[in-house]
Amino acid sequence: MGTVHARSMDSYPMHGRDLGVNPDDLEVMEAVQETKQEVLENKNVVVEHVNIEGLGRTKEDYLGYEISDVFTARNLVEVMRKSHEARQRLLRLGIFKEVEVVIDISEGADALPNGLDVTFEVTELKRLTGSYNTMVGNNEGSMVLGIKLPNMLGRGEKLTFQFSYGTKETSYGLSFFKPQLGFYERNFALNLYKVTGQFPWSSLKETDRGVSTELNFPLWMTDHTLKWEGVWRELGCLARSASFAVREESGHTLKSALSHTMVIDTRNSAILPRRGALLRISQELAGYTGGDASFLKEDVELQLNKPFIWGSPEHVYSILQIALWMCFYVRFYLGGPTSVRGFGMYSIGPQSEGDYLGGEAYWASGLHLYTPLPFRSNKRGLADLFRTHFFLNAGNLCNLNYGEGPHAHLQKLAECIRWSYGAGIILRLGNIARLELNYCFPMGVQSGDRICDGVQFGAGIRFL
Q1: Which distant-in-sequence residues (6+ apart) come within 8 Å of 220 by Cβ?
Q2: Which N-terminal stretch is annotated as signal sequence (predicted)?
Q3: pLDDT tens across 388-437, in order?
Q4: Which of 228, 242, 293, 453 is the most buried (most CB within 10 A)?
């Protein structure tokens, strides 16, 4: 990712992301040189100048917030550590291809005896970049083409156009991103998009044309998102055999909604975490800012991960995971390899003539145990991407009678619970997605549910 150099009267290089000295690069020094080095390490120093070289369209005031902490260093070790941290912050901005750091003794008539100069040598990204990749969603795949204008106005702004063609969904959109000066995590985004999707379990096709604005900001240990979204939604039938209940839903609607999401995430990985917890709480209110769609949505997700170590702590471990999803007062679908395993994709709950209609409230939970593959060696290799998976899932979905109280709603959700258990193998695709191949035993099956008794394959990002 770059090189950090610390130079004295006789320079010696220092390499690595941890800014440590590479002993292979050090030459044998005389006693006088060792004394100079000891003085720099043990006595106070003053950072007199911090320079940035290689800037083109980037404004210097935008970077000043990211490197100002280097001036607070009081010895050489602190200078190196804070310089490394500043370098990481510069790379995080997404506007530089490469950042290197050089630490020099100050020179000149006004230089202090213990003064240092820190120089960041940067290489900016091109004005226009493109990308081509594939993505794995919830049991679907897609090809994604993107064009990006990074650092468009010189202060971290980004304009992105993206086209996605998938097995069930096709979309394209234009987004503008603007971070706050000195606070990258606090940012604003504006999005324009069109999404066309097919939902064969409901014999529905849907086209959404929308605009949204969102504000992201951290607050203490939490991350928050405030969002307004306006959507023109068009629903149609996938086939002439669609049920009458599905045909009734067809047509055009306008949605104007305000939403808020709070997230606490201490997991070490979003795809297959070894430890940590996730709490996500979101609310969405539609109909009070315009449009003809009106609803209140409450969504809660909780995940806990606990490692159990057997044998070598570096290579052999198991993970116990507890997950809970819960949502009320808007239409949802449940079932499939990414939620309640052992059931067909979104094939739990009310249905009409084979078309699943979803429900207005649901809950789902899971208990998982992930272990290394049996009979594997202690050497790291391809086997580290695989995990043995044991699971127990449960959930329910229903419609609500709004004349009844919350107690009646909870009682209805507690009736006719679907659950399943089984085992399988998981393949982690980097930190992007994961694949599951499980053998499932569905239980608590109700009339109309579609089951997958036996082998079930799943691919996606978000799993229960």
Answers
A1: none
A2: none
A3: 999 999 999 888 877 777 788 788 888 889 999 999 999 988 788 889 99
A4: 242
Q: Is CATH 2.40.160.50 the classification given to domain 200-460?
A: yes
Report how far residue 409's alpha carbon sits from residue 399's, in angstroms, rounded to the nearest whole number: 9
Contact 115, 106 (CB under 8 A): yes
Q: What percent of the chain has pLDDT over 70?
A: 85
Q: Does residue 238 contact residue 200 with C-beta atoms inside 8 Å? A: yes
As to burial, measured by CB atoms within 10 angstroms (0-12 exposed, 13-18 middle, 19+ buried), residue 344 is middle
Domain boundaries defined on the chain: 4-124, 127-199, 200-460
Q: CA 96 to CA 237: how far, in whole Å?
A: 47
> HEC profile for 247-309?
HHHCEEEEEEEEEEEEEEECCCCCCCCCCEEEEEEEEEEEEEEEECCCEEEEEEEEEEEEEEE
* Three-class SS state of 78: helix
pLDDT number for residue 240: 84
**Coil vs helix vs strand at 92:** helix
What number does CATH give the domain 4-124? 3.10.20.310
Strand 4-6 to 96-105 pairing: parallel
In which residue are the tokens 């069930």 written? 168
Which phi and psi (to 5°) does residue 67 adopt?
Answer: -110, -5
- pTM, entire model: 0.82
pLDDT digits 0-9 by tens, 261-319: 999 999 988 888 888 899 999 999 998 888 888 888 888 999 988 887 654 443 344 56
**Does pLDDT of 210 surpass 50?**
yes
What pLDDT shows up at residue 296? 84
Give the other-Cβ count within 10 Å of 2's Cβ.
20
Please state, in angstroms and rounded to a whole number, the distance separating the CA atoms of residues 358 and 325.
16
